[in-house]
Every structure is written in structure tokens, then in C-alpha cells.
Amino acid sequence: MFSRRDLQELAEWKSAQGPILSIYLNVDPTQQSRDKYKLALRGLLREASAMKATPQDIEAIEHFVDLEYDWNGRGVAVFSCAAEGFWKSYPLAVPVKNHVFVWSKPYVTPLASLWDAYGRFVVGVVDRQGAKLLLFQMGELTKTEGVMGEEIRRIKAGGGSAATGRRGG
Length: 169
Hints:
It is a single chain. The chain is of the alpha+beta class. The protein has helices spanning 4-12, 34-50, 55-68, 109-118, and strands at 20-26, 75-81, 86-92, 99-103, 120-126, 130-137, 140-148. It has a four-stranded antiparallel sheet, with helices on one face. The chain has a three-stranded antiparallel sheet with strand order 5-6-7, with no helix packed on it. Helix 2 (34-50) packs antiparallel against helix 3 (55-68). It is elongated, with a radius of gyration of 26 Å.
């Protein structure tokens, strides 16, 4: 799960020894097949090669998507700098636009935009028997808490005492 802390760490990281390859890939299973997404990745990696990405980073990302990625989610962000042993991958519950960037820092603008749009929010569901709170982060349900009780069948009206002859209201 991608958190605000992950975004902060990526934004602060800078490579001194080589460029960082940042890849964003839309892998929404409702839109296309895995093979078409792999083909789109190969196109992005060709662009990365023209942008002076290292062959080790290109190979690492290709290996990750072909053999290690579990294809859960609708998007994935991958950052690689083999020269410094830097590797981060984040499966995302929301789709992203395909993008490649090679620079001395990870390209985090798309992730920051996603965080602004989907960040964290709570949904409350209340009915006669209880309440449930659902915490969502970046489009994923992360926590559920609730209180359930018995349904209120009848509310007793009045409050006076029959012994004193007064009627409560």
C-alpha cells in the first residue's frame, strides 16, 4: 500500500551515481489484457533507453513485470537505480497514465496527484442497529470499525408517577 510517508521518502531521495528510471504503467484488467500492457511497457522502456536510462534498470523493470508482479490493482509505479541499489515498486488500486522519466530524482508528480485525488477518507454508514466506519486510502479499503446493537423497538413515553396523580409529558 502506498502511503504519504512513501511519497515523502521518494520526493527526498536523490541519486549521486546514476539516473533513476521512473515508470508508471496502467494495468487496469477491465481495459486490456496483460500482454497488451507488457507491450506498452516495452514501448516505454524503448523511450527510457533513448533518455539514457541504464540497461540494468531497464532489464530490472522488465524482469519485474514479466516474472514478479502479481497483477493486483489497476496501476503500478516502479523506480529503479541499479547504480545505488535503489528499487521501489508500488501496486496502486487506481489507474495511472503510462509514463516514463529518467532523472537524478524519482518522478513523483503523478503519485502526488493521485494522493491529492484519492488520499485518505472515511465513509460512515449508520442505521437503526449500529454504525460502521470505513477508512479508504488511495482507493483501497484499509480499515473497518463499527458498533452494532439491538434495534430499538419502542420508546417509553411519559415520565410522571401514577402515585401522585400527575401525568408526565
